[in-house]
Design brief:
Length: 909
Amino acid sequence: MKLLNHSKTIIAITTCVVVAGACFTFQQDEIVDYSTDVKPIINSKCITCHGGVKAKSKFSLLFREDAMGKTESGKPAIVPGHPERSEMIRRIKHNDPEERMPYKHQPLSGKEIDILEAWIRQGAKWGDHWAYLPVKQIPVPETDPAKRYNDIDNFIIQKQEEQELKPSPEASKETLLRRVSLDLTGTMPTASLAKKYLSDNSPNAYESLVDSLLASPRYGERWASVWLDIARYADTKGYEADVGRNIWKYRDWVIDAFNTDKPYNIFLTEQIAGDLFPQPTNDQYIATAFHRNSMTNDEGGTNNEEFRTAAVLDRVNTTWESLMGTTFACVQCHSHPYDPFRHDEYYKFMAYFNDTRDEDANGDFPLLRQFNDTAREQIAQLTSWVKSHSSPDKAMRVDRLVRTLQPSMYSGGVDSLKNALILNNNGDLLAKDQSFMTYRGVDMENVGQLIVKYYSNSPTGTLKVFLDKSDGPLVVSKKLNRGKEWQTAIIEFPAQKGIHDVYISYLNPIGRKEDEAYFSWFSFTPDLPGAGALEYARKKQLFKKLILQETDGTPVMVENEPSMHRTSNVFERGNWNTKGAVVNSDVPAIFKFAMPKNAPKNRMGLAMWLINEKNPLVSRTLVNRFWEQLFGTGIVETLEDMGTQGILPTHRELLDYLSYNLMHSWKWSTKTLLKQMVMSKTYRQDSKTNPELIEKDPYNKWLSRGPRLRLSAEQLRDQHLQISGMLSTKMHGPGVMPWQPDGIWVSPYNNARWQTDSGENHYRRAIYTYWKRSSPYPSLIAFDAPQRNICSARRIRTNTPIQALVTLNDSVYIDLARHFSLRLKKEAGNTPASQIEHGYELMLYKKIPKDKLEVMLTLFNKAKTTFEKDKKAMKELAGKSDPDPDPSSAAMVVVANAMLNLDEIVTKN
């Protein structure tokens, strides 16, 4: 009997072993996915020694061809199909800590080793990261129709059910009114729109509200604020001098683009390559200021080529981070440590931006000149005449010359100087008597005129131009006019042929020490077509008039002429002074599939690649950014990095569903995308929480409740302006300067000061506030606005005491509290209770709870008692906005200020 029992035990144990073995074999035979199973292990445990920066023992796991290649020992570390012959597996399983990998770190877990062994046994198949695969059409999950308003809800509910969560009920109409207004327009709704919505009990009331908000001019201002962070927009150039930059027309272009719902693919194309359209409009030129927002260094002694190069690198990094949600900057110095981007691919991409005319010049050239309507009509007539008497190409060149004064040569392009110098090493050319300034390889084919911007204080100074050598053929000899201001001269000469080295000489026979000339730029251009002497003379006169007209200008992108082409090189270790191999324009190999076959090798080709429906990153990045603006966190939290080191998406299928529809069904319409989001039941949930939600979904990762977020810097200011009744609806124009204390600005060299505006400009929306990079508007910075020296893909929300001090004590917010109190007095009678009740309804569209009313009345009475005893304090708080204050009116300022600081007001609930 005992023997029988023993036999049964042996059989039972044997059975368990067989079953366990079968289970283990089954797990090993499961298909291992490289991206989800293998890549996380490699990135966390291996890549620091065997990746883009380091490849110890000549073993790298960044690219498959490297991983499968021979190592320093001459043998491959990975033998596909044979983990038992793979050195990598032997080393990670080794018992000797001197042999085991990862070296001097914790060994891999048994599960991690099993995954790697199974992966190699299955052929060590490589795979691309999810974000680098094309966006595909995603089927909508099935769910209970009662729980949804649109397809977004199906995806959200599916994840909630997996987490054993339920959606929250819909928020009140009053809450939704404020929430969606702040989200879509950045301000409170107009009184008429609010009244219409709150009194409309039809099923379509909310959708009608959304449509009205999307049609509001305020919509473009709100979403342009988001884009300006990406575009690093500022009204100054940056660096130490940080002098002013006249680029506000770009900001206005962005506002108008959002308001007109310019399709996102066109929106991007015009910003990347607007100047490369066959006949670019002014707006298309202005759009290219997106990449002229890069900083320019006017500090004396700096090297223009160094900072031109820095601007080009900034454009590369901005394009990847802002438009494609990918960290690319580190590839400047070495291959990417974690993602499949090689070092030389950075510079191939840089070549797209390396051939533009800007050179870190003090004048911010090239500039799109701002003509009035009459002059614009004259330009159209001139170019039409040139086209009819010559060719479309010649007409385009004349049009570009008149509008941008390009192509021009600046001091940065000079090859050699004799008895002349570059002012401050980075400014204009300063010439004395018997000076020579040499430019190499100038295209003189059919060139018959020189346009030059200069200043001369000599009565006898003469400009001469020789070809090929300093005593070569004389092309130009022109006495320069003496004057107190800068002048532009158009000097004609016989049409030339070929490409030449050009020697520009300045001669001053009198030779006084104080006599000198400054040259800003030179432009060698073809003459107008000589068709009909009389008509030619008229058009020539018009051409000169337009060229000589003094205008303001907006910095824009203009491509080099072929003869001015810049060679692009790899920078060894990222050092611009250490040039490596020559490279041509291209995108990383992993994304070649998205490059259209007919794409030119310039920025227009780059734009075509960006907006191609096969590009896996652009649509995902936009959807993710808009989602983050509405819900507080992106579907991929790391907006700036959807790569392998970024945080995984919470709702990957939803991200692709929205991205695919954005490109195909919605034709890149951002308004349609936003409407889909705000119409969802997910967005309309109440934001109230409870212990269960906090335990299961503390950060609202699974969207089990509505968004509850502190307002952005711009939303906060604009909301308070509107509540106080002071918000100006004036749009566009140069940056304005609302109140800030004197002395905040420190402006070396030019002593620029903050000139506080008055009247309407004092109360304009935050997007119009003048933005100085070295000293942004203080209250905006306190609420997490960036400096905009570089692209900011997202703002990280903070919670600091300084923020409370701003809204409680900043003179701007005290001023708005005064106006709010006056508004309450005017609209709600003289009793404190009626004024407080009215104010609360103005802010939140609902009646104030009794306990809050009592708190506010108590505050009012205490303040009134204080001011009855202190008339000076009463007058100081009431300010100039109330010419006849009394203790009650001053006390209501205190209450109004407190109301504007309520948690419900500074957050979006």
